[in-house]
User: Fold this.
Amino acid sequence: MASWVLTAMDLACQKAQRTLFEGVSFSVPEGSWLHIEGGNGCGKTSLLRILCGLSPAARGQVLWPSSSSSSSSSSSLSRPDRSVLHYIGHALGLKPELTACENLCADAEVSGLALSREHAVQALAAQGLQSRAHLPVRVLSQGQRQGVALARLRTSPARLWILDEPLVGLDVQATATARALLQSHVDAGGAVVMTSHHDVGLQGLGARLQLGRA
Assistant:
């Protein structure tokens, strides 16, 4: 039985007097994944931001897993901390003037972790970016930047990953590496909530949520 669960209850989102979605409810237990699908403009990114506590819902409630690994219940918080949740949005949250390695170290520091440059390079190497580790992010391609953002997941303590189009810009090899990373996280008892226009191909306990018209 899962010891924690992310729960969305009757969520609704409105933008500029237009309802993007309403009545959205689901649960995501540990060791599972949720793939949010739908056409452009249906509110996929808005839903992710609501789940992360970055945007308010027009209606409904989100319960996040407790930051305590021993807790068996979820809690209603204004926003979960980074020991609970790691979010990667379209903007990726990278500092262009810093190197890929420095970005990982800075991100770990925000989470209250001590990450050595050696371990940061190892995480980048696992994404196929060892030769790019000491280059400023501003000179990297979009796919390489996406890989740097995904490498941060390898150093994050969060068990819940919320990812907006995590495969965008990746080549075939990098896509396979990203899929393996997500699968290993789920297999280890973590949870992934993601949007993607492509079938990510995750196995095990999972579900799909269609926003907008089917």
Observations:
- DSSP finds five helices and nine strands in the chain.
- Helices lie at 44-52, 100-110, 117-126, 142-153, 172-187.
- The first strand starts at residue 5 and ends at 15.
